[in-house]
Amino acid sequence: MSGFPDEVEGYYVELAERRGWSEETSAAIRATVELIRDLDRGTAPRTYGAVVDDHGTDWLYEAVWHEREWVVIRQLGSGEDGEVTRYWWQRLEDDEGMLTDQALDREEWGLRPLSREDFYTAWDDPGWSLTA
Question: Where on the tree of life does the source sit, at the highest rank (predicted)?
Fold first, then answer.
């Protein structure tokens, strides 16, 4: 995976080896990583939303308007136990979960509006909580 920072390259190489991805799967993951990175760096309209799930985890989303839908480019989970998960182009997935591949749907997901400032406060400081 050339063109990504060394730590990102290493992460995806290690993940591919652990998961036994074929060359085709690795190429598909790379294409997804590149798309999410490009959307993250782009200037398309953005929206933010948040919800607390049944387990008490705060889930925050940043999505970009792309091809007539809201594509999630960053997802933050902050559990009551203090466990934090961040998914974005540098880490689309791990052993616990992954960046959603579903178009963001505020109504269906039961999201409340969230400002960009609140999203990035939480992204940068995972001690922040929707319920605190």
Answer: Bacteria
| SS3 of residue 63 by DSSP | strand
CB 47 within 8 A of CB 66: no
For the ranges 52-61, 65-74, 121-130, the lowest mean pLDDT is seen at 121-130
- Residues whose CB is less than 8 angstroms from the CB of residue 53 and which lie 6 or more positions away in sequence, other chains included: 59
- Inform me whether the pLDDT recorded for 68 exceeds 60: yes
Q: What is the pLDDT of residue 79?
A: 85
Place of tokens 């792309």: 66
Evaluate whether residue 78 is within a structural domain: yes
Q: What's the total number of domains in the chain?
A: 1
| Within-domain flag for 109 | yes
Instruction: Return the structure tokens found at 79.
Output: 């559990």
Instruction: Please give the pLDDT value at position 36.
Output: 97
